Amino acid sequence: MTTKTTFTTTVTQAEGVNATGLPVPAEAVAALGTKKRPPVKVTLNDYTYSSTVAAYGDVFMLPLAAEHRTAAGVQAGD
Fold this sequence. Notes:
Blueprint: E1 12-13, E2 20-24, H1 26-31, E3 39-44, E4 47-52, E5 54-56, E6 59-63, H2 66-72
Antiparallel strand pairs: 1-2, 2-6, 3-4, 5-6
């Protein structure tokens, strides 16, 4: 079964590095099931890539590599 979850978030960037990510609401992660790092397809604008949700304590994030930012036309703060 495929679960589609949609939410709005902001591209965040770790201070002093190029790394960016997408914060994921806990409700969205819960809707994906019980896997520790659920696999997902992320769509930004008209660009889609595969990833997994990472947990950092109580915060859930999707990594957003530079190649994906460029392809989706997004940057930190968007």
